[in-house]
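Ticket #366: bound-state structure for iron/sulfur cluster.
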Amino acid sequence: MIEKTDAVYIHIPFCNYICSYCDFCKVFYNKEYVNRYLEVLDKEIKSKYKGECITSLYIGGGTPSSLSLCELEKLFSILKIFKLSKDCEITIEANPDSLSLDKIKLLKKYDINRVSLGVETINSKLQDVLERRTSKDSVISCINNLKEEGITNINVDLIYAIKGETIEDLKEDLTFLLSLDVPHISTYSLIIEDNTKLKIKGIKNIDKSIDRDMYDMISSILKNNNYIHYEISNFSKEGYQSKHNLKYWNNCEYYGFGVGASGYIDNIRYTNTRSITNYINGKTILDKEIVTIKDKMFYEVMLNLRTNKGIDKEIFKYKYKTNIDDIFNYKELVNSNILEEDNRYLRVCEDYFYVLDEIICKIMVK
Ligand code: SF4
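RESOLUTION: The complex was predicted; output attached.
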């Protein structure tokens, strides 16, 4: 089975501040490190990229917008090596406070056509918990600037289920996000990860039943405002689904470059080192996992079921030369109305999105 790799993820680990919940691969912005980092990133890309046509390029972090204009220009010059399709989706993650008008103009100059903004919450009590400070005004002004410069494909991230958050608080955050009139909203229930400031402080996850109520409320409010709940945590207006994230959920192969990045090439899933010192010293890859056909089919099921479209049984058959029901035992879940099946697709009923992990555990290999 030969599939071409047409997606690229680039990790920029620098941040102007460190949030209390963050377990991403990140470091404080440091000018000297940025320069050395970009040099090594350039080398890594040149050593791995095999010249395929790329249809989605995603620059994540960290906070890529923490780089100065000059550094961003250097980054974008490095990325010129990629052969991009005409309709390539090029996304950059940004923080509204560090995405100045000059930087937006630079994004435009380098054909960046999608921006994902970390808004998370605009409630000051909750911002204290997250140790983030983004004012309503800076979000509004950043989005206005983006739209004025012609970048209208915008995502905003929302974090909910924060200690001390009420349903009313969440409603206010959602009302604010809706007022921004952006085509994509990603929502994340706060999980207290190990090695985060929140964990060290002994903060606990919010009660499960409140988390569930919040999830249901988000889904219902966003759907009432014409957003499609197209993936467990993601909502978009028609035609604005994230092409890049769909590559992951469709179990496609992709390059991952940069510290802490992971990739999936030629049936190998690899993870780069999370140590910026090791990365800068050229010790790039930390771990490799060979993906067998069995693993691949399991990833396919696990990832496809995250989306409202579900598993395309014809594509499954085309890729693996076998019917999905010859491999997986799932009919009982269909009979219990947990999964929906028609001639072409197998998907999770939306009411069960919230407990997807439990459902996946019940889909047994025959
Ligand atoms: S959450 Fe984002 S902005 Fe905050 S420290 Fe982590 S990567 Fe940086």
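RESOLUTION NOTES: The mean pLDDT is 96.
TICKET STATUS: resolved
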